Amino acid sequence: MTTREIEKCSSQLLIGNNLMERPVDSEKLANMLGISIEYQDLDDEVSGFLVRKDNKNIIGVNENHHKVRRRFTISHEIGHYILHVDEPLFVDYYKGSKLFRSNNRPNNYRVEKEANQFAASLLMPKSLIQLELDKLSDNMEYDDKIYELSRLFQVSQQAMDYRLKSLGYYDYGF
């Protein structure tokens, strides 16, 4: 899928489920989609997983990770659920700032990139970011804007920075 298609898909999902508000409630969305969430004591490098079996859909989340990391993991796994319907199992590992899968299948990079884009657009919808940017002072430094927006959207500063850059705000000094 293209970035534009992923943006549209996540936006329609939020609007259709009346969840287009910050911070996006990714757990509520998962439940509305019929996905149960289980917090588990997983190895530190395991961020989460999605299992589809016997008409049951489960997202497992590492309970030891920070709240914003868990929110991103849930949204990432929802991305797999929506975008990659033919795969019965996803186990996602997290090292540093990278989320990756353990297998070396040729489409692995594309699939993970799509799930990451989905998670970012779900947790930080473009329209809501624009509304919040309009409220911030033009005199604020970039880092202060990142901090404030990440606080409002309950995401990491790194995720917000990446999202703003991917939306083209960084180059224009918003």
What's the order of the H and E elements?
A: HHEEEHEEHHHH
Structural class call reads: alpha+beta
Approximate strand percentage: 15-25%
Q: Radius of gyration, Cα only, in angstroms?
A: 16 Å
For the record, give the distance between the C-alpha atoms at the N and C termini, rounded to a whole number.
28 Å
Largest sheet: 5 strands, mixed
How many strand elements? Answer: 5
**Mean pLDDT metric:** 88
| Dominant shape | globular
Low-confidence stretches: 96-104
Write the layout of secondary structure elements.
Layout: H1 3-16, H2 26-32, E1 35-40, E2 46-53, E3 56-62, H3 67-83, E4 89-95, E5 98-101, H4 108-123, H5 126-135, H6 142-153, H7 157-166
Parallel strand pairs: 1-3
Antiparallel strand pairs: 2-3, 2-4, 4-5
Helix pairs in contact: 1-4, 3-4, 6-7
Word description of this protein:
With 174 residues, this protein is an alpha+beta fold. Helix content is 49%, strand content 18%. It has seven helices and five strands; from the N terminus they run ααβββαββαααα. The protein has a five-stranded mixed sheet. The two termini are 28 Å apart.
